[in-house]
Amino acid sequence: MNGITLLKCICEETRFNILELLQKNNEMSVNDLVMKLKKDQPLVSHHLRLLKECGIVTASERGKMTMYAIANKDISRMISEIVETSEKMATVCCETPGCC
Question: Using an 8 Å Cβ cutoff, are 38 and 53 in contact?
Answer without folding.
Answer: no
